[in-house]
Design a protein that fits this description.
Blueprint: H1 3-8, H2 10-32, H3 38-47, H4 60-72, H5 76-101, H6 106-112, H7 129-132, H8 134-150, H9 153-167, H10 174-186, H11 188-191, H12 198-219, H13 223-232, H14 241-255, H15 258-265, H16 280-305, H17 321-329, H18 338-362, H19 364-367, H20 377-391, E1 398-401, H21 403-411, E2 418-421, H22 433-439, E3 441-445, H23 448-453, E4 463-470, E5 481-488
Parallel strand pairs: 1-2, 1-3
Antiparallel strand pairs: 3-5, 4-5
Length: 510
């Protein structure tokens, strides 16, 4: 790349970067993954039912995943594109923020630094709640900044909209909301904003967005909240854990910044006397609150409650890292080092792509077990539905089993039956028992005992189709997938022994 582009046409560089990032991180997973990842199959299992919430999470992730499946004709590539669109929008919001507070070429450098964050590349192809909240996290920060800077009612309304959507992505979004509220209360220069309609407009819009989900949570006995508490594993017994867990989380997250810091070192030049804008104090405070506020609040609450914070919960915490680092270190950065920076940046841009592709293709050679993305999902669906249509003419009402096994079978079928997750009505409140009786159901278990355990109590008259053994979609030698198959026969008259009149399994692939 011509270095003059960084200085003279940063907007062009930004779009080239976003285009390359989205294209490559969509293409590589599509090529190396013959099956969709775990969280995507889970999202397809949920999203097909269009609920206002699910037993683990709020609804944005399943809604997005199902929408892409419908629009693409179930192309696997669409799920990887979805992830990168979320990352790209998040980068775009940070680019707009950088342009507000940094001069070229430092604005584009701050965005380019984001490729050094592990969460923005290697883990991003698996669309989950962490990836889903990225665009809303960035857009909330950008709109809040512009609402404060320009006293814009439109910006306040948009901040409220993105806040609500962020909360519908993952509840951890509350830490960003809390950090912004503390900032607006504690900073004297921003307290006057409470005497304007802006914050109340934002709160009203956010509330309108989340009310349907909150009503769903109440109606379902706070099931998502209970799941979240179980995930953090509250530990009040060992006092040391109240210090150990938050420190482990903060140190682990800090280490993720190492590639960004190495890229910044490539730009290091003679230190200059800093020259800041007139609103430097506000910029500095804003960046510190939105960058450090959420992780510190997470660590504080973890320390109080004994939470076991999981590393992936830090996914959105680094979106402002590039802008913040460049803003505070710009007096030590030299434009004369841009060529060296681009060399180091290219390495960090390509290395995760090579690593992802290599692990996808050859990972099982080292782990000696198949990857989820090599699971024989379509082959499993073909076997199961061939056996079903050998006995029955109409497709089953649903598939009973884990979201992974049953979800793969459902996704790869043409009829896409509902999934009765773990035969647990709390996990699948959309289930209609009458449909099971009328149309029958497929039961898939990890083994014979597991399959029979999954059969609902009223339906003990089952057909045992025996064990299934399928190879992973990997050329090497790894243990096969072994499962057990049962059928709950439909009660209405059907023709037996007839093959399916239409292709029972979808062959649409990315």
């Amino acid at each position: 790349m011509d270095i003059r582009l960084l200085e003279e046409k940063p907007q062009t560089v930004f779009w080239l970067f976003i285009g390359a990032h989205v294209l490559l991180w969509t293409l590589v997973p599509t090529l190396v993954n013959p099956n969709l990842p775990l969280d995507v199959i889970e999202g397809l299992t949920w999203g097909h039912e269009w609920q206002w919430g699910y037993h683990k999470h709020p609804p944005i992730k399943p809604w997005f995943i199902e929408s892409m499946a419908v629009m693409s004709g179930k192309g696997d590539w669409a799920q990887y594109l979805l992830s990168q669109l979320c990352v790209g929008v998040a980068f775009g919001a940070m680019w707009q923020l950088a342009r507000d507070i940094l001069k070229p070429p430092w604005a584009i450098v701050s965005v380019l630094l984001m490729v050094g964050i592990y969460y923005h590349n290697y883990t991003s192809p698996e669309f989950n709640v962490n990836v889903a909240e990225l665009p809303f996290w960035s857009l909330t920060i950008l709109c809040t900044w512009r609402a404060l800077k320009y006293d814009s009612k439109t910006a306040w309304v948009l901040a409220g909209l993105f806040t609500g959507l962020g909360f519908l992505s993952k509840y951890i979004f509350m830490f960003l909301i809390l950090a912004i509220l503390i900032m607006l209360v504690s900073r004297r220069s921003w307290r006057a904003v409470w005497r304007t309609p802006g914050p109340y407009l934002a709160a009203g819009v956010a509330l309108l967005v989340v009310i349907p989900h909150l009503l769903w949570v109440v109606e379902n006995n706070f099931i998502t909240v209970t799941y979240g508490i179980d995930r953090v594993g509250v530990d009040r017994q060992a006092a040391i854990n109240h210090l150990y867990y938050p420190l482990k989380f903060l140190i682990g997250q800090a280490l993720i910044l190492i590639p960004c810091l190495l890229m910044l070192l490539a730009l290091k030049g003679p230190r200059r006397e800093p020259t800041y804008a007139d609103n430097h104090d506000q910029i500095r405070a804003f960046l510190l609150f939105v960058s450090l506020g959420p992780p510190i609040l997470m660590a504080l609450l973890a320390g109080i409650a004994g939470w076991k914070l999981r590393s992936m919960w830090g996914t959105p915490l680094f979106l402002t890292a590039g802008v913040t680092l460049v803003y505070f270190w710009q007096h030590s950065l030299s434009a004369e080092r841009l060529r060296r920076f681009m060399l180091v940046w290219t390495i960090f841009f390509l290395l995760p792509l090579v690593a992802y592709g290599s692990v996808g293709l050859w990972g099982p050679a080292f782990t000696e077990r198949g990857k989820r993305t090599q699971f024989p999902g379509q082959a499993l669906a073909e076997v199961v539905f061939t056996k079903w249509f050998d006995r029955f003419e109409e497709p089953p009402a649903m598939i009973i089993g884990s979201f992974w096994h049953a979800g793969n079978i459902s996704y790869h079928s043409t009829s896409r039956p509902s999934v009765f997750i773990d035969a647990d009505p709390k996990k699948a409140p959309w289930i209609d028992a009458g449909r099971i009786a009328a149309q029958g159901a497929i039961v898939i278990g990890a083994d014979k005992a597991d399959a029979y355990r999954l059969v609902p109590a009223p339906y003990k008259d089952v057909l045992d189709e025996g064990g299934l053994k399928l190879r992973y979609q990997y050329k090497g030698d790894v243990p096969p997938v072994t499962l057990w198959l049962l059928f709950i026969p439909p009660t209405k008259p059907v023709d037996r022994g007839l093959p399916a009149t239409t292709d029972p399994v979808s062959s649409q692939k990315g």
